[in-house]
Amino acid sequence: MTKYEKEILGELLDKYERSKSFTGTSKTERSISLKLTKLYSKYGDEAEYELLTAVNGAVSQLESVGYVFAKRKKNGLIDTVSLNTASLGDAYKSISRTPKSETNERLLSILDTYSSCGAVLSKYCEAQKQSIAQNKKVEYFDGDLAEFEAVLKAVSKIFDIEEETFIRDFSVKVFGDSKAFESVMGKVRRLLFKYGDFPDEESVFEDLNIIKNPGHVFIKGCAVIQIGGQTIDLSKLGGDIAVSSSLLPSINEIKVTGSRVVTIENLTTFNSFSESDTFAVYLGGYHNEHRRKFIMRIYADNPCAKYCHFGDIDAGGFYILLHLREKTGVHFEAYRMGIPELRKYSAYTKKLTDNDIKRLKNLLTCEFSETVKYMLEHNCKLEQEAMDI
């Protein structure tokens, strides 16, 4: 089969698979037709004789085997080519193409297999079944069924991880191959973020204990910490210390000697942060199970302290704060995340993206609604690094 035969037949099959005839919802029998000039803009141009000859020959060949019907003009040029739906099976085979109906059957089978594997997959699978019924694209499927199933398999297993686990180790556990997970990580992350409950897309894996490198909690300020039988008065150090995740369970006691605990979203801000009467905590950019337990331990030892979160004044910052509250049970207050800061540092604000606007609108009914309204009205957001510390 020539290049032009494959292109013409492939285009007609594409149109068929997008049509109501394919879904069986067409009330009248409609032909699946293609104008050749739409596919080949120079078809009919006298200067393109070779193209004209090759295309005409391709159409004639497709006609001879019964895959298409052609409508010709008086001058011999072909006006339209229509698919012979009575020969669909042979047409698909001739270009080694799997019919979309067969692909959909396989997709539905995979979706049925994983639809009961947790809330995230249940929600995702139901949405994709509806997409198939409406002849729409299935999210995160690019034609490779094996890859698609690998994505769902990874999602189904990732919620079982209770301890910090390296990416390569998770890959071996799920796929028996240290590199296999890397090829689907992007799709897994997007699926989890869209259908799960995570404050930020970039930190989804860390939130679920899947890490590239060991994590650390950075702490400084007004607190005395007992770890491994040793006592460290952080206020006397004049700087911060980093405690690896593996050491967090070894902490015996955390006594806050100031009145306030502040968690800080960004490392640059944490490094510059130096406020009296405050115990400052940088959670490594995210708060997974170990870090949440660390926060809960601080609260258990110091229930009378005031708890605040200092983050970016954007949708992500607010979602991180709300997520931190939800997962720890500690009512953190927003610290320097309001309209006064947006006004004071207006020269350093950035414009909202379409995704920012969408996420902010979902926060219009929460306690930050006034700040959110201001951000939407003034098309602005602010990174905490832009503020004077």
Top CATH class of the largest domain: Alpha Beta
Q: What is the total number of structural domains?
A: 3
The fraction of residues in strands falls at: 15-25%
Average pLDDT, all residues: 93
- Strand sequence of the main sheet, in spatial order? 9-6-12-11-13-14
Overall helicity: 40-55%
- SS field, number of helical segments: 17
| Strand count | 14
Given as residue ranges, the uncertain stretches (5+ residues, pLDDT < 50) are: none
- Classification by helices and strands: alpha/beta
End-to-end separation in angstroms reads 70 Å
Descriptive account of the structure:
This protein is of the alpha/beta class and 389 residues long. The chain has three domains: 3-94; 100-211, no CATH class; 216-386, Dna Topoisomerase Vi A Subunit, Chain: A, domain 2 (3-Layer(aba) Sandwich), CATH 3.40.1360.10. It is built from 17 helices and 14 strands. It has helices at 3-18, 20-23, 36-39, 49-64, 88-94, 100-114, 119-133, 145-158, 167-175, 185-195, 204-207, 267-272, 289-301, 315-328, 339-344, 354-361, 369-378, and strands at 33-35, 68-72, 78-83, 165-166, 210-211, 216-221, 223-227, 230-233, 241-244, 251-256, 260-264, 278-282, 306-310, 333-334. The strands form four sheets. A six-stranded mixed beta sheet has the order 9-6-12-11-13-14.
